[in-house]
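name: query_chain
kind: protein
chains: 1
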Amino acid sequence: MRMGMFNITRFACQTNPRRNSAPVSKPLIADSITAWCKAATASVLALLLAVVAAHQLLNHSESIFAAARPQASAAETLRKYVELRLHNADWKDYSRLVTWPDEPGWDCNWVVDKYSVGTERKRGAITAVPITYQRVGLFCYDFEFTSEPKTVTVNYELVKRTDGWKVNSPLPDYPDISAQVLLDLLMSKASSASESSARQAQFRATARKIAEALAAPPVRSAPAPR
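structure:
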């Protein structure tokens, strides 16, 4: 039977020492056991109190460090959100950065060559941060790529929550994806043995169209379509 140290001391203290078989040493044995029980119990209690105190101190220290740790700014939060979307991240990876509870399932993406982050602007409880995308076209999942070179500025609005800044709007009409990320995905599929030769050819043809669009000169800014 497994018994912890604290239970053992209680068991020893509750044992009646006067039932021992040596009548001459009864008082001495009783006094020795009683003294040992008291000392052992006191030691265990002191150890338990020390453990509890250390645990409370650790929790308090973690709270202090968490409070002192600087949160990301609105622009930094937005940049992280944009990078995740451009790298074709899953919803679970960026959902904590937005306020909307869900998203539709899109079948197209804006293909982006590069982007830049503008200056934050405060509007009451809202912070607006513009992102300028240099888009090269629209890719849809039936291998269709439509070249639409344009520079678009999207004005994002962020709100402060207890756990940091969140993107509050806009919800995209189509999400953006990095042209290089998309090219890597297409070429990976084109070389996959699990794909038919016909589909491999389609992947390569679409990748070639995107590469040609990237090589075209950039165009002037256009109003945001969302």
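note: The first helix runs from residue 5 to 14.
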